[in-house]
Design goal:
The protein contains five helices and no strands. By secondary structure, it is mostly helical.
Length: 108
């Protein structure tokens, strides 16, 4: 599974690389904001807010064909319900986020 399946995103956008890049450009600021918010919620132990933000980020990430990051968001959403798993899952989430960040920067 790709961190970002840009070919699938282009296909979804009717084959247009420009439209796919525009979608990534509109996705990324929200993804950064949600990532920061998730970190803050994890620190403050605001589990409900963390789950909500992870859920939101999961949906938008899957929409742009960032399936692996979407799965990391889903895992974080589930782990928030069991605090003992939260720290390890958060580390994996952050690693996937960093890889996605690099891939998006290559495309934009």
């Amino acid at each position: 599974m790709h961190v970002l399946d840009f070919a699938a995103l282009m296909e979804l956008m009717g084959g247009s690389e420009d439209v796919a890049k525009q979608l990534l450009a509109s996705y990324w600021p929200d993804a950064q904001r949600l990532h920061t918010s998730i970190q803050q919620h994890a620190q403050s132990k605001d589990i409900d807010a963390l789950k909500k933000d992870a859920h939101t980020l999961k949906g938008s990430s899957r929409m742009i064909k960032a399936e692996r990051f979407g799965e990391a968001c889903y895992a974080l959403e589930l782990a928030a319900k069991q605090e003992d798993q939260l720290e390890g899952t958060l580390k994996k989430f952050n690693a996937e986020y960093e890889e996605l960040r690099q891939r998006i920067q290559q495309k934009l």
